Amino acid sequence: MSETNPKLRAELEGIPTYKPGKPAAAGGPAAYKLSSNENPYPPLPGVLESVTAAAESFNRYPDMACTGLMNELSDRFGVPLSHLATGTGSVGVAQQLIQATAGPGDEVVYAWRSFEAYPIITQISGATSVRVPLTPGDVHDLDAMADAITDRTRLVFVCNPNNPTGTVVRRAELERFLDRVPADCLVVLDEAYREFIRDPEVPDGVELYRERPNVCVLRTFSKAYGLAGLRVGFAIAHEPVAAALRKTAVPFGVSQLAQEAAIASLRAEDELLGRVGSLVCERTRVVDALRAQGWTVPESQANFVWLRLGERTVDFAAACEQAGVVVRPFAGEGVRVTVGEAEANDIFLKVTEAFYKEL
């Protein structure tokens, strides 16, 4: 038998692997998962019923055009149907965006550290990542990002709030940045955590997109809406970009279960906003407690907090797991910790209190 293997694309060599949040081990000490920024609440009213009804016909292909969901999104955001595209979570849509804009010889600019899928989906396309370090306060350095744009730059990601730091860029600085970006370069405002923002100076990306043809907004149903396991996200962009996204979408990628759940979730927004408000209150409690213990914590506008721990990161994550909560470590940098159930947050705060005294 020949030992020659099929030829694969060179771009796949050394590609980083996406690391999902570690689950709480069955029978282990960790009872709470605070590693994936999931919503701790059960499905919103009406959602489970919609999914159950849709499950009766999952021997059939879903509506590839996501007609019902697209109509709902069009009404909800006041945008034309032709400006919408769906995908398997916002990360799926992000990959479609790169497929539509960048290939070998092109560049994709993003802050670092930011969403860990960006380098993966960029490398898969054959494009080159241009990583711009965050400021010392763990915020996007938009001036440096604008300086990094060249005639090879095809796309810029601005994750707002930023994952994993929870920090935001505000209206004046974001508009100044957008004014500097060439009109033929696409700026993607990744707003996966939009619903958790309480800072009035952070603009809604949909407002910015309306007047700027090179701005695309990413949203997801995975976080605030609690549909992480169903994989449905969407983009709002002007027609040429949205049309390209529909061309690069995996056929039938968004299941009918996901479509019906998303529609039901949009119709239960009052309940959703109440749950998000409770999580924001918990976020405030957690951040205040951490600062009272002595920690320096960036102001988070997402459903998680960021602790810079450097070389102690892995040790801290191990201490949390032993105490009963799983967090998301970024070795040598820090940990991202989801704001979850009050009981889980209390366990986390006990670990931080003891750990800080050892620093």
Automatic annotation (TrEMBL):
Cofactor list: pyridoxal 5'-phosphate
Pfam name, any one: Aminotran_1_2
GO molecular function, one term: histidinol-phosphate transaminase activity
Region (Disordered): 1-31
EC category name: transferase
Quaternary structure (record): Homodimer.
Function statement: Aminotransferase that catalyzes the conversion of aromatic amino acids and 2-oxoglutarate into corresponding aromatic oxo acids and L-glutamate.
HAMAP family tied to this protein: HisC_aminotrans_2, Phe_aminotrans_2
Record's protein name: Aromatic amino acid aminotransferase
Species in which this protein is naturally found: Streptomyces galbus
Lineage of the organism: Bacteria, Bacillati, Actinomycetota, Actinomycetes, Kitasatosporales
